[in-house]
Design goal:
The complex is a heterodimer of chains A (273) and B (461). Chain A starts with a strand and ends with a helix. Chain A has 273 residues and is α/β, with parallel strands linked by helices. In chain A, a hairpin with a 2-residue loop joins strand 1 and strand 2. In chain A, the strands form 3 sheets. Chain A has a 7-stranded antiparallel beta sheet. Chain A has a 7-stranded mixed beta sheet with strand order 11-10-9-8-12-13-16, with helices on both faces. The longest helix of chain B is centred in the last third of the chain and has 21 residues. The relative contact order of chain B is 0.13. A 5-stranded parallel beta sheet of chain B has the order 3-2-1-4-16, sandwiched between helices. A 5-stranded parallel beta sheet of chain B has the order 6-14-7-8-9. The radius of gyration of chain B is 23 Å and the shape is globular. With 461 residues, chain B is α/β, with parallel strands linked by helices. In chain B, a hairpin with a 5-residue loop joins strand 11 and strand 12. Classes of the chains: A alpha/beta (273), B alpha/beta (461). Chains A and B meet through helix 1, strand 7, helix 7 and helix 8 of A and strand 5 and helix 12 of B.
Chain lengths: 273, 461
């Protein structure tokens, strides 16, 4: 069992949990993820690691409540425990000195971006961060990421903070102003697609972190397969980070809708209880 | 007195009944039938059946006990060699192993050795298993990676030799393929759990959620333990590599079976993991896993469940009993057909498969006649779900993270017959070393590796 040692409500449907999982905490690197199961009847879901503390033996996850499992997870409190918490899984981020890097985070994708921003800064990169959300209330980890950024921008759909519009608009301005060596983008699939299309024009290396549906997370089921440059890769063992210019985003969007019907049924039943 | 020429039948659920549930198909022998069947055994002096047993059970020995009505003694004889008889008694390919060597085959059917093993294992479980006396501890420790048939067997045998054994399992349940792969109706999960409990009663400790290679490396285990056994299996699914394989509706056999068996999707929404199959399901491949997929699809409510195979029934790798059960349940076999592409709708949802008719040509490397496509024979079949069950490759996680470990061209860890790898103190066995094979061969490998590890611990340290 893996006890919850801290909980924060970051916005109406975005929650932070700090979980005691010493083995995972000891090995976790930026870009990696975990698989958790709440209880004996639960499903296994992957979540990218938002932070980890090997001394404390804790791992932080931040999640958007979208389905039955994440909603149930959001209802847990400090002192409750998770049945299973396995990791760290996947390949870590390619953290090294690139020069000038732009880190683009959208929505709940800002959470897994945070450890990468920290690590890239530590390597001596000039880090420019661009965070996007629907409105200012939904912006995650703003002060935390700002603290490790040399330049920092915000874009909101409603203009309640920073630029009114998309992160890609801000990215365009940054590219016009700087010689950018690498772009790291984590967020909704559509955001990663738009960012990748933009950077491709300038031939800027772009990494994205994908979050397909998974079951085991160890390369066994192939449910998380993604098409990279026409070749099938497993996000759980080959990823979750891939060259943004080579990802078939449309196929990923389609595969992530595989069980929407069942998800609806599951949520409805849970709500009825 | 003349010997009965045929095996006693094992009563089973009628096909039309059982496709509506996930309960086990055969009920097993009664005491009376078991004794009658055991009396068919000729008690050959040279014990030919034992040559066919990868885990070295004294087969005439335990059958002799059954014939005398001494089931407890029969259990002891089996347990002396095999810690997991309720499992092997259900999923072994007896026809090509022990029963394949039985002298009675000269005049008729062999003794139902598998059925008798299962009978004794069930008798013992219902009565309550008693763990054997704990041996004196050697003080030596062994880490076993993976709790599938190879790992459990190796762990159990090592514990009985007095070593301190810790198993590391990546998933949340023990058993590996016994839990995620083989369906409930063929191997009830309560039975797997009971066998695992027995292994634990021998003093084996099992840790879950530990993905060796990620959560901890083999080298770290090697530093902490006196020896390491790797039994991580053949978890990596093979694909057809035809267009449309990433459409919504195409599953690997592993994903489909894991959802249904381990995550209990057949009890959705009581359990949270869903599975979606629609009306027409096609399974590609003709091994035991393919039969499991096709039969599971029927139980989930598929109106039609097809097996598409590029050769003929004679070349099918599945056990005869599995093929027979699938046929009885209404699985339709479309033989000499090879898929060439999956077709989806504008939303990317699977709608059809296009395939070519084949004919058999010259024998290939495996000795089986090679299927050759018939030009211009393309046909389409409207389907909702495709299950790809054309084999698995060794799990790459450990070889990937352990550069010094010698690996074969198929990604298998290179190990000798007793499990010794290229690194001292590190052993491997089962599908990770041989490529995908059977449960009993993995158990045999675990058994031989346990002996080699024992030898290593006594002499090298």
């Amino acid at each position: 069992m893996y006890p919850i040692v801290d909980k924060k409500i970051l916005s109406e449907n975005v929650k932070l949990l700090k979980i005691k999982a010493p083995l995972v905490a000891k090995k976790a690197l930026p870009g990696q993820f975990i698989i958790l199961r709440i209880d004996e009847k639960g499903e296994r879901i992957p979540l990218t690691i938002a932070d980890s503390d090997p001394k404390e033996g804790t791992v932080t996850i931040i999640f958007l409540e979208v389905g039955k499992t994440t909603k149930q997870l959001g209802l847990l409190h400090v002192g409750d425990s998770l049945e299973n918490f396995a990791g760290p899984l996947g390949m870590p981020s390619e953290v090294k000195k690139y020069g000038t890097v732009v880190c683009v985070g959208g929505g709940v994708g800002i959470a897994p971006l945070y450890p990468i921003v920290k690590a890239l800064k530590k390597e001596g990169n000039f880090v420019i961060s661009i965070l996007g959300a629907k409105s200012k209330d939904l912006l995650l980890l703003e002060p935390e990421i700002r603290a490790f950024s040399d330049e920092f921008y915000i874009a909101t759909d409603d203009g309640s903070k920073g630029h009114k519009g998309f992160v890609s608009d801000v990215l365009q301005q940054v590219i016009d102003k700087h010689k950018v060596e690498m772009v790291m983008a984590i967020g909704p699939i559509i955001m990663m697609k738009v960012v990748s299309n933009l950077t491709k024009k300038y031939n800027i290396k772009t990494l994205v972190s994908l979050n397909p549906i998974m079951v085991d997370g160890t390369g066994m089921c192939g449910g998380c397969r993604v098409s990279i440059d026409g070749k099938t890769k497993f996000a759980c063992v080959d990823g979750p980070e891939f060259d943004g210019h080579k990802v078939d985003y449309d196929n990923l969007m389609l595969r992530n809708r595989r069980f929407v019907h069942a998800e609806g049924e599951s949520c409805k039943l849970a709500g009825d209880q | 007195m003349s010997v009965r020429k045929t095996k006693h039948d094992m009563p089973e659920q009628p096909p039309q009944e059982r496709i509506k549930n996930f309960k086990e198909v055969p009920y097993g022998y009664s005491k009376e039938i078991a004794i009658e069947e055991a009396k068919r055994c000729l008690q050959c002096k040279n014990k030919p059946c034992m040559k066919g047993c990868p885990v070295e059970i004294d087969i005439p020995g335990f059958i002799g006990c059954i014939a005398q009505g001494d089931f407890e003694k029969a259990a002891e004889v089996i347990k002396a060699k095999n810690n997991l008889p309720a499992i092997s008694g259900r999923v072994c390919p007896y026809e090509s192993q022990c029963e394949g060597e039985c002298t009675l085959k000269k005049i008729g059917e062999p003794v139902g050795i598998g059925r008798l093993e299962r009978f004794i294992a069930d008798f013992e479980r219902e009565k309550g298993k008693k763990p054997p006396q704990k041996p004196k501890s050697t003080g030596k420790s062994v880490a076993v990676v993976g709790s599938g048939p190879a790992g459990l067997t190796c762990a159990g045998d090592l514990a009985r030799m007095g070593h301190i054994v810790t198993v590391f399992e990546a998933l949340h349940d023990p058993g590996g393929v016994l839990m995620y792969g083989i369906p409930e109706f063929r191997l009830p999960k309560a039975i797997v759990k009971s066998e695992v409990e027995y292994i634990k009663s021998l003093g084996v400790d099992i840790n879950y959620d530990v993905v060796v290679g990620k959560s901890i490396t083999v080298q770290e285990l090697r530093d902490e333990f006196d020896a390491v056994f790797i039994g991580t299996g053949a978890g990596l699914p093979n694909w057809l590599n035809i267009p449309g394989e990433n459409l919504d509706g195409v599953y690997s056999a592993n994903e489909f079976l894991t959802r249904v068996n381990m995550m209990k999707a057949y009890r959705f929404p009581e359990y949270d993991t869903p599975v979606k199959i629609g009306k027409v399901v096609v399974t590609f491949g003709a091994g035991n896993v393919a039969m499991d997929c096709a039969r599971t699809a029927l139980r989930l409510g598929a109106e039609k469940s097809y097996i598409l195979y590029r050769r003929t029934e004679a070349e099918m790798p599945a056990r005869a009993e599995e093929i027979e059960h699938a046929k009885q349940e209404g699985v339709v076999f479309k033989l000499l057909t090879a898929p060439i592409r999956f077709i989806g709708d504008e939303k990317g949802i699977l709608k059809a498969v296009e395939y070519l008719k084949m004919q058999l040509g010259e024998p290939d490397d495996s000795g089986r006649r090679r299927p050759v496509p018939i030009i211009g024979s393309e046909e389409k079949l409207a389907i909702d779900t495709a299950l790809v069950a054309i084999g698995q490759s060794p799990n790459p996680l450990i070889p990937q993270t352990m550069k010094d470990l010698k690996v074969g061209k198929h990604g298998n860890i290179i190990a000798d017959d007793d499990g010794r790898t290229s690194l001292p103190g590190i052993f491997a066995g089962g599908d990770i070393a041989t490529g995908a094979a059977t449960v009993i061969l993995a158990m045999g490998a675990g058994k031989r590796a346990a002996r080699a590890i024992d030898d290593y611990l006594k002499n090298n340290k």
